[in-house]
Model the fold of this input.
Amino acid sequence: MQKSKFLPRGRKDRTVVLVDIRETKSAKAADLFLQVRPGKDFEMLTILRAMIKGEHVTDDQVAETGLTTDVLQDLIERMKKAKFGVMFFGMGLSMTRGKHMNAAALLTLAAEMNAFTKFVAMPMRGHGNVTGADVIMRWQTGYPFGISFNRGYPRYNPGEFSTVDILVRGDTDCAFIIGADPGATMPRPAIEHLAKVPTIVLDPHVTHTSRLSRVHITTAPAGIAAPGTGYRMDEVPMPLRPALNSPYPSDEEVIRRIKEAIAEKPDWMTDQPQMIFSQV
Amino acid sequence: MLRIIGGTVYDPANGINGEVKDLYVADGRFVSKTEEGQTIDATGMVIFPGGVDVHTHVAGGSINFARAMTPEDHRRTQAFIRTKTRRSGLGGMAPTTFATGYLYAGMGWTTVNEAAVPVLSARHTHEELRDIPILDKSSLVLMANNEIILDLLEDGEDERAKHILAWHIWAAKSYGVKAVNPGGVASWKWGKDAKHLSSKIEGYDHITPGVIINKLAKMVDSLGIPHPLHLHCNNLGAPGNVETTLETMRHLEGSRAHFAHLQYHAYGGDDWGTMKSEAAQLAEYFNAHPNMTTDAGAVLFGDTVTITADGPWQHLLYKLTGRKWGNLDVENETGCGIVPYTYRPSNLVNAVQWAVGLELLLLINDPWRVFLSTDHPNGACFWRYPEIIQLLMCADFRNDCMAKLPPEIKNRITLPEINREYTLYEIATITSAGPAKALGLPHKGNLGIGKDADFVIYHHDKDIARMFGHPRYVFKGGEIVIDDGEIREAPQGREYLIKPSYDPNTDDFLKPLFEDRYCMSFENYPVEMERIEHAQIQNCDATDATN
Done:
């Protein structure tokens, strides 16, 4: 692990605490493993926040989370003693019972810990360039995902405009899938809808989604045979330099050519210009 | 080609104060005469050079974090609907990139300076800048809390530090140097701050904020960087901080310096209950010292989102307001904090801040040294500049606004005693000619022959806010981009960079240090030149800088 000016011994100068519902392989790499009862993340986080603030919490309440008061007290002491604490969290928190409430509880805990020492929290993102898509959608539309352009400007509503919801409702008459395989992971009604409408897939591999699509275009894998940018999960962009040549075009080139072909079609958009300061 | 006839021209860079004068444009620049092309009759209208914003936050990790944190604002704000020439987007407190270009151009601004870029996320910032249409852009790199630089200063290796500074400017493809709360943001990594020039910086024994400021300013001058050290002082926002600001100014005698958002650094009093304006004291010192420029960082009442590299201040603001708080630590380089905020006229502290911004603009007597800014989006969003222009030009309007403030404001501000009203000539100076000069962009904010044909035609209007909010035409590079409120064209702007010279052995020195401390490889760190669209490298002149 990275050595630094203030942590010269690298891993030895750091403490890793793992919280999970089962003892995973990561537990071996951690100094401390806390096994929380499934679905009790929100309770555990809220109890931690209460204990940190000196509120009374009963042993029974703690026991419901699968942990003990002593274990949590020890955790709190370690957290307060840390020079710089980081909480990483993933889909085990954000996609289980409580969902965004769990993430909110964790973020609040991180903010409140700053009354004692420096603490931050950071989501662990999925594979590939999930963060990059998120970052770019934000600067172009103001929102990270779940965006609808069907009124000509970006609107956001996860649960309504998220891909899975749109597909399950059958709201699209076409699907364009780039570098993802919803055919392998999404609920059956969503997959059935993808098979029903013209679905176009851009992927270096033939995926489950390719098999139910009308068109599959093989592209060069980004970072291996195509250049580009990948955003790390801390939103630091890294240049991707291809190590190999590929006979296939990059995703970017395919999209550019599709865009050029569409531009030659008759324009359906309004010519009506918009006043800049129309709204007071 | 283009002829603009009969307009009343305000061109402070050439001393032209409201003369009726014809302008000619060819190939994107002003020329002495042309007989061809479109003729626009501007009789009875006012012509200004295109606005130049010396200090704004429009691109990069921090504003993009602010966008993510404020979806509730996006929903209520102005939407830009996609057309043939325009991408869709949203306005509001933290506008999206495309909308940022349309909104700035829509009020006649054509050049902006993104004032805070960490080297680590410079690649990201440039990607966003490329998505801001119409405007020409420059950016400043954050250097006053960089671990490698601070370590060298701690060891007295000033000359080496200067080469490393120059190396970083080029690595970030940046235009100049920004210092934010020098030493304070480094201390924030330990949950601490450095409020005064002699404060201890956590992790260091010898250097203080005063030392960092002094040395950075000298390095910037000696490298001949066109724009002076762009300084966000220590102790921002705190009652009584005028002492720190004055001490900083005294420290910088003999160097050039640009003081960013001075409004946030001009307070007296001992606590929030006794906070008052010290703009008069600060302006008096500033007026007597021509080595400095500043931008106002003015506040307007309403909702906004505050974003700054000043991490410890944002933690305090979060504790004061109990609103959302975002914090980013940028490894060895800097930090960042985001807190949505509402300035209320009924809040005494906010009322003082509102007055201080205007007082500084009115009490600093040389319009070539004080520039219009709101530190967007901190004091207010940039698209509210026309409201500030109205406050500066109309004392009666100012008095009407002051009447709505709480009565306890008396004796805390000097604004009621100030009768000065800005002229159009002075407005053209603080919004365009002045900031262009301070940035070292002589072809901007200037309607002279050979200069970039970025200019605005306004209707004469007694309603000043309406006049400046609704230009008749806006031209960028000689092309009509805004025609009576409509976006006609959205051309791609330029990016200004500098390449200060540094010892060619700097790479060899940095590489091992870097690999020891950073989490990316040395080769991936500098932004590649081909990522900058329409890059324009400006000269650094080491002999000319102090003039």
Summary: Chain A touches chain B through 47 residues (CB under 8 Å). The longest strand of chain A covers residues 84-89. The CA atoms of residues 172 and 243 of chain A lie 38 Å apart. Residues 100-113 of chain A form the longest helix (14 residues).
